[in-house]
Amino acid sequence: MEAGVSGEGDEKVDFELPEIKYVCYGGEHHLPLIMSLVDQELSEPYSIFTYRYFVYLWPQLSFLAFHKEKCVGTVVCKMGEHRSTVRGYIAMLVVIKPYRGKGIATELVSRSIRVMQESGCDEVALEAEVTNKGALALYGRLGFIRAKRLFRYYLNGVDAFRLKLLFPQPQIHPTLLQAAQENSIQISSETSKESH
Ligand SMILES: CC(C)(COP(=O)(O)OP(=O)(O)OC[C@H]1O[C@@H](n2cnc3c(N)ncnc32)[C@H](O)[C@@H]1OP(=O)(O)O)[C@@H](O)C(=O)NCCC(=O)NCCS
């Protein structure tokens, strides 16, 4: 995901956070809203096929933020098997300028991440321009680590960081561990008896 470019209408808007409503992708009527926000704010061009690929296959992972009737932010994601893990992937994240700095992006991303975790993902990944301080700070606060630097990743020639969030593995209960140990001791003593 690449850095933002200058959009129109940067004037500050007065609003209270409870006025922001978050909705999951709900069908074709949401598509132009997502496209207009992403086209306006991200430097990398996406075709309608790319948008459709994400929202048709993983509608449950994309969210929109509305202030009154206006769409002010969106997140678009996917998930699937990656090597031996199940990986969630954040493809696009945008909040329009007058609404930034209030936690809207954090809320959008957190909703997607929650669904990914509930759906069995082991990790979440994304790419961000190395110069995109806002996005790097946001994801850093959410616990993402910088896994890799990707040389000249974007059309504009800028490098990217691959960021990753690893979900904690479920704890194995100590009694199960003890039972497994006892079982293996028993098996090894039986094997040694047999060999005598
Ligand atoms: C990045 C972006 C989505 C952040 O949206 P936002 O709604 O302002 O983000 P939040 O309010 O949830 O920010 C949460 C945290 O992110 C960090 N952050 C966000 N924008 C920042 C900025 N411009 N500079 C520094 N830190 C920033 C801060 O740690 C902030 O925490 P704080 O509340 O303690 O200051 C928004 O700036 C944007 O749409 N940018 C253009 C598109 C883009 O770059 N998308 C990401 C591509 S990887």
TrEMBL record:
Q: Which GO terms describe its molecular function?
A: protein-N-terminal amino-acid acetyltransferase activity
| Keyword Acyltransferase assigned | yes
Keyword Mitochondrion (UniProt): no
> Which residues are in the N-acetyltransferase domain?
20-168
Record Pfam families: Acetyltransf_1 (PF00583)
Q: Which SUPFAM superfamilies match?
A: Acyl-CoA N-acyltransferases (Nat)
Coiled coil stretches, renumbered = none
Q: Which InterPro entries match?
A: Acyl_CoA_acyltransferase (IPR016181), GNAT_dom (IPR000182), NAA30-like (IPR044542)
Please provide, in alphabetical order, the Gene Ontology terms of the cellular component aspect for this entry.
NatC complex
Keywords assigned = Acyltransferase, Transferase
Looking up Gene3D superfamilies in the UniProt record yields: 3.40.630.30
Q: Which family does it belong to?
A: Belongs to the acetyltransferase family. MAK3 subfamily.
What name goes with this protein? N-acetyltransferase domain-containing protein
Native organism is Trapa natans
